[in-house]
Amino acid sequence: MRNMTVISVSLTDRNIQDLDRLQDILGLAGRSETIRVCLRSAEEEIREREKMEGDVEGIMISVHKTDEGHGPDELRHRFKDNIKTQVHSHLKNGKCLDVFLVDGPAEQIKDMLAAFQRDDTLEYIKFVKS
After folding, report:
1. Minimal CA–CA distance to 108: which of 43, 46, 57?
2. pLDDT digits (tens, 9 = 90+) for 56-87
3. What is the dihedral of CA 116, 57, 100, 104, to 10 degrees?
4. What is the chain's mean pLDDT, rounded?
5. SS3 of 129, please?
6. Are 99 and 61 in contact (CB under 8 A)?
7. Model's pTM, two decimal places?
8. In the sheet that 83-90 helps form, which strands lie side by side, from edge to edge?
9. What pLDDT score was predicted for residue 66?
10. Residue 99, CB half-sphere, CA atoms under 13 Å: how many?
């Protein structure tokens, strides 16, 4: 068995619900295993992002609750030079879907993706490089 370090993590009720749901969906033995799987997935996404260089174009998708739109609004204004087109839709479940066509130097796109991912009002962020 591998040597593992026990750490303490503070999570919101929503985080716990999501963690337990992921554990059930993936058929994992416990929360620790679920967190390890999520970390591996995040690591892979970061590796792909780190490979980006030169001029980058792609689609970014985000979802947030309808009444929690101020954080994403500020980010849209902050990265307006990289957001070429945006489609905003109200979903039936009280959430908003935003689809952005983004373009710019890789470092700017990486900064934008990191800023959107840090926004805890966003429930989902995905970037697809063209």
Report:
1. 57
2. 999 999 998 887 656 678 899 999 999 999 99
3. 60
4. 91
5. strand
6. yes
7. 0.77
8. 83-90, 95-105, 55-65, 122-129
9. 81
10. 6
pLDDT at 115 over 90: yes
Residue 83 sits at φ, ψ, to 5 deg, of -95, 110
pLDDT band, very low/low/confident/very high, at 51 (cuts 50, 70, 90): very high
- Token duo for residue 129: 């490089």
Query: How many CB atoms sit inside 10 A of residue 119's CB?
Result: 16
User: Would you say domain 52-129 falls under CATH 3.30.1780.10?
Assistant: no
Amino acid at residue number 18: D
Q: What is the DSSP string of 43-110?
A: HHHHHHHHT--SEEEEEEEEEEETT--HHHHHHHHHTTTTEEEEEEEE-TTSEEEEEEEEEEEHHHHH
% of the chain with per-residue pLDDT over 70: 96
